[in-house]
Amino acid sequence: MTQPNQPEIRELGIIGDQRTCALLDKKGTIAWYCPARFDNPALFASLLDTEKGGFWEIEARSVFQKRGYLGRSSILRTKFDTFTLTDWMPYQDDALEGVCRLISESHVPVTHRIRFRDNYGLGEVGIEKQDESTFLIIGDRKVYLLSSSHSIRYSGDEIRITIPPQEVGWVHFSSSRKHKGGITSELIGQSLADTLHSWEERLKIIDYTGAYAEHILNSCRAVCLMTHAPSGGIVAAATTSLPESSGSGRNYDYRYVWLRDSAMIASAHIRAVGMVEPAVKFLEFLEKAKEKNHDKRFVPFYDLGLGVAPPLEKIPLRGYKGEKPVVIGNDANHQLQLDANANVLLAAKLIYAKRGDKPHWKTVHRIADFVADNWHEKDHGIWEEGIEQHFTSSKVIAAKALEFIAVHAETEKQANKWNEAARQIRAFVDKHCLTRSGAYAVYAGSQHVDVTAALYPVWLFCEPNSPEMVATMQEIECTLKEGELYHRRLELFDSRKEGVFLAASLWVAQYYVMLDELEKARRIIDAALEFANDLGYLAEEGNVATGEMLGNFPQTFVHASLMGVIVDLNEAEKKRM
């Protein structure tokens, strides 16, 4: 059996239903799909191992021409010279939950070639015929339904469905089996129309018309696709183990809900398009997760069942382009990450300002108390490295978050506690967190700087032209810049051996917007967007020399940063008019 090629990350498109998603390339091959939930075991995982992983390939004598989404939906239409492929996941339709693929009339035969492999490719599936066009796919934990407009053939673990010339054909894979009456062409057509309508309704709130408007829409779509509607959680990315650098082993599972990432995403959504509901749902997610796990404090991330994400486990797959390890789970949940908690407070501040009331205040004030009580502790910082230090960025955002949320305190005692903690943090930063040259240090006692400092004036901790910020940015420009973009500073790994960090590069652009150096900000934004694919999606990092996208995909943290700087740039340009 011939194996599909692993696609470049840049070639990946996404369809989804706000429960999970599928990633497919420009040839129409689905290379990654976790049924029913983002963090479930993958049924199609050729993205990480072409020999073991499952896939869903489209075979035809044809040439790719272009692809794009229908309107504001997540319905992906791929045009070849001989036919058009339309892919979608029925949106909030329990009966038809799964993947729908529609082939237009063609003058050549078009064949679906499918190999199901359970548990990331480590488990086999059973195939059971119901009738000529309906088969059961029997996994370790679940039974799925495969239906088609045309007859289904199989040999071994390979399924083939051929759509003859001059005929329209569809295939539906269901992860629910809730539809009892059989799948028909009428149902497929209705699902397409309903899904288009539902997505248009979902994203109609987007009325942004300023600079980079297309990228605001693309980023909003990316974030919505990575949102798990049943829980309110927003996953960091759809994938696991896409490498950040060659041969380093720095591969991670991003299919979980990080406090930091989700809070920054929620804040960006509010600022860019006024979308408050997902941010409120995120606070609800945190409240429920804490109750379920009886946590004394919030851990850095949770799974989509509101549980503590599982510990890291290596699984025997070849890896993307041979880069190992392939991992599921994540071991960073024991870490103290003060900035993650503080970012939740920043999101809450925006929610409260927008709504005029204070949903989930109990959760918010507990987080504020935790930050006020623990700011003096060493933590693992924004980059979640395996060391503890007094990271300056953690202190800075803690101070500003407490000052912001103190405005909403319900008692004078509350407000005084939070403001006093913020005052003490500021004094600590002034005394311990500056380098000999007067720049903001990575951590207390360090003589190095990190690109995270570009956010300090954005968080309103200091003025962008303060002596400390000027010294910091001069050092960043000298030591962390590559081309027009920027690396982060890591303590346990040479960050020059990984790609430029796209979110952090966009923070630098945001800093230059605050300085009113808008042309420089645009150059950085444009350079970052060189790493967006044809559908507007961004991975975590980029290789400046090769143009290669690096890291897990699509990275919601990056899309949030892009929305943030675009909004600020647009406001700054309006003021110039």
UniProtKB/TrEMBL annotation:
Q: Which GO terms describe its molecular function?
A: hydrolase activity, hydrolyzing O-glycosyl compounds
Where in this chain does the record put each GH15-like domain?
211-511, 519-564
User: What are the residue boundaries of the Trehalase-like N-terminal domain, all occurrences included?
Assistant: 7-145
Source organism, top-level taxon: Bacteria
Instruction: List the protein's name.
Output: Glycoside hydrolase family 15 protein
What the entry lists under Pfam families is as follows: Glyco_hydro_15, TREH_N
Give the originating organism.
Salmonirosea aquatica
A biological process (GO) annotation for this entry?
carbohydrate metabolic process
User: Sorted alphabetically, which keywords does the UniProt record give?
Assistant: Hydrolase
Q: Record's InterPro entries?
A: 6-hairpin_glycosidase_sf, 6hp_glycosidase-like_sf, GH15-like, Trehalase-like_N
